[in-house]
């Protein structure tokens, strides 16, 4: 692993993400880029030197104060002992948070994005969603999201939840790398649902073929659930899983509204870290 990106809003969740990312960076000698975006409603981007052309005077003054605060906090983090011996870069942008995170991902081409998320529910989940969910849906690299503090030393069990239909070599490789760093045991999980049920004999045979195709060594599990999301979360809770890994199809527009995303739902509702990667249908 050579490059890790950590977007931060300086919240507790973002600090948890930075702590875990710093551990991974130290163990892999990766460069860590810490990104802060000053959110400006109605703007995709804003020159952080203050040269905006369509922001009025009072709003411009407020934005510049926010930018200066962001610079100060990034500087403070640079001197944090947590980041000692980390090859660190900092970036400050202003405008739309998701737009700027996506731009940095495309320019910087990190091999891993680590993000804190608070999750959402009800109307907020339907209408807004979080920036973390949007990044999970669209990023071309693996994304690790977390809500609570965790260290590599506490990741003992990793579950790889899959439909067994996709070629997940890139996601499997990243999941194996994190599991190796924490000496964790890997579990391969297939959820049986009422609308997508198959015999255990068939599933275990497919699992063996899947593991061979993706270079995996794992303990195999079949779990029955009402749906995939609930089945994954139930299995994780019942089996002391510390990290969930899974692919996402990154559906957009009408397809996303109609069918949703199992990975985004798991990211939104899981208390455990979730590693995702956009995969082809």
UniProtKB/TrEMBL annotation:
Ranges for domain UspA come to: 1-146, 156-277
Please name the InterPro entries in this protein's record. Answer: Rossmann-like_a/b/a_fold, Universal_stress_UspA, UspA
Give the domain of life: Bacteria
- SUPFAM superfamilies to which the protein is assigned, alphabetical: Adenine nucleotide alpha hydrolases-like (SSF52402)
Belongs to which family? Belongs to the universal stress protein A family.
* Protein's name according to its UniProt entry: UspA domain-containing protein
